[in-house]
Write a structure and sequence with these properties.
Layout lengths: L3 E7 L3 H7 L1 E3 L1 H7 L9 H7 L15 E5 L5 H8 L11 E7 H5 L5 E4 L10 E2 L10 H5 L8 H4 L2 E5 L1 E3 L5 E4 L2 H11 L7 E4 L6
Parallel strand pairs: 9-10
Antiparallel strand pairs: 1-4, 2-8, 3-7, 4-9, 5-6, 5-7
């Protein structure tokens, strides 16, 4: 069974993603000068731009597109509560769902971490036979994660870009946002299924 992964982004970024035909890494997006509605911590994004990667294509974490192994991530909780760099809440945040096998069809340089990739002691792993070392059922998919938040934030990372056609499903909180997404997808050649999943939110 393919291991599903989830990337969160604001709906305001969808038009740009569709026009480029891919999700860009933060480093590549900055290089291209693209406007982006940031929902994450700016200081963590800055750290990730210089934190080295020793597997896959090397470089830095900021050169990779990040995915969690579950929806309703720890970062989404932070977004829901509001933080210094984004106060817009979670309602217009999209879950872009794919799976590791599909992403690797068009990207040879991927790896995963056992905890949040920005932490000093995160292990970077490009041997995907080791995915079974992650506790998907008791930790990563657990709804109540306060005692193991670092482990729940294990990441899958793909170098530089992820092709739009790799995204299979878009999860949203409300039917209103689903309708907006479907309108934006009308002119796209690849139209992922849009599903309303309030249980993926806080």
């Amino acid at each position: 069974m393919a291991v599903k992964v989830s990337h969160i982004t604001h709906i305001d970024n969808l038009t740009s993603i569709l026009s480029h035909g891919c999700l860009w890494s933060d480093a590549k997006r900055l290089e291209l000068g693209l406007v982006n509605q940031n929902i994450g911590y700016s200081h963590i994004k800055q750290r990730r731009l210089v934190r080295p990667v020793t597997v896959a294509a090397g470089g830095t974490i900021g050169q990779y597109v990040p995915f969690n192994f579950c929806p309703r991530s720890v970062m989404l909780f932070v977004i829901h509560k509001g933080h210094d760099d984004f106060q817009g809440g979670q309602d217009r945040v999209l879950h872009l769902i794919s799976d590791i096998d599909t992403i690797q069809l068009t990207n040879d340089y991927c790896f995963f971490t056992d905890i949040h990739a920005d932490l000093d002691f995160a292990e970077q792993i490009d041997d995907f036979d080791r995915l079974s070392e992650l506790d998907f059922n008791k930790i990563i998919k657990e709804r109540y994660w306060q005692s193991f938040s670092e482990e729940k934030q294990a990441e899958f990372l793909a170098f530089e870009s992820v092709a739009w056609q790799s995204i299979k499903t878009i999860g949203v909180k409300t039917q209103e946002v689903a309708d907006e997404v479907n309108t934006l997808l009308q002119s796209a050649t690849h139209k992922p299924r849009v599903i309303v999943k309030p249980e993926w939110y806080y």
